[in-house]
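Hey, can you fold this one?
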Amino acid sequence: MNDVTGTGMSHLVTALNTISSRYLTDTRQVDETGLSQQRWRRRGEDTPPSVLALESIFQDWLRDSISSRAAAYVVKSSAGQLGRRYTLIPYAMILRRDVTSSPTHGVYIALLFDERCQHLWITLNQGISQFRDRFGPTRSFEALRQGSSLLSELMSAPDGFDRGPVDLAARYPYGQAYEVGAVYGRCFELERFDESRARTFAEALGNLLGLYETIPLALARDPSFAGAVGTAADDERMFQEMANQKSSAVPPIEIQDVIKPPPKRLMLGSRVAYQRNPS
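Sure. Predicted structure:
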């Protein structure tokens, strides 16, 4: 990713420092019971500085960073929808246009802040909706994990990236789906994030983008196929283990030799015949 200038790097530093230092204060409040919860994002209210930093400065930086191939990608970011509470895990996404238009489907690059906004993860991630449709709510998380594992085995990790899952300190299912759905991830601490770290961040994002472009289209559009393969393999192993346990639990039975008496002879005129034993 060589599209970003030095000025662009300073914009990235400003955005991430603003998000890490202000987001919790801007978007959370203490209720009458003393518990912290997300504020409502109401229409007509001024947008907090950290939300502007995410949805304007950081999003613009991402678009500038891929400007030479912008026609192939959609960039989105969000701190939560209007009329709802601010999200616990603010994010930005880079989506291949030929793969998906939504982070609920397909494979995409997800830039995820943890719930404390002290770390930013660059991840190759998967939407959970297709897994829920294929496996149902109770099995979707396990299938998502299996899909991540299989996809990571089919590709080589970019420099500096580890196989998923990642740690967002998520307390609720939607954040936990991002954790489990990560195929690869790399974490950046936001404390004292400077231009040197910004250049490393941009390089890491470029490396992951290069890998994203090589994923076969059919698999990128519906990664739940990979989850189905992994789940089937687990089911087969479970069946074999159960069969082995059952066979080992049954004591061997010694089969005794039984000597049967010879069949009775009957005289039919001058011929000798033997009576059949139906047993």
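Strands lie at 28-30, 36-38, 73-78, 91-96, 107-113, 119-126, 162-163, 184-189, 265-268, 271-274. Let me know if you want another pass with a different chain boundary.
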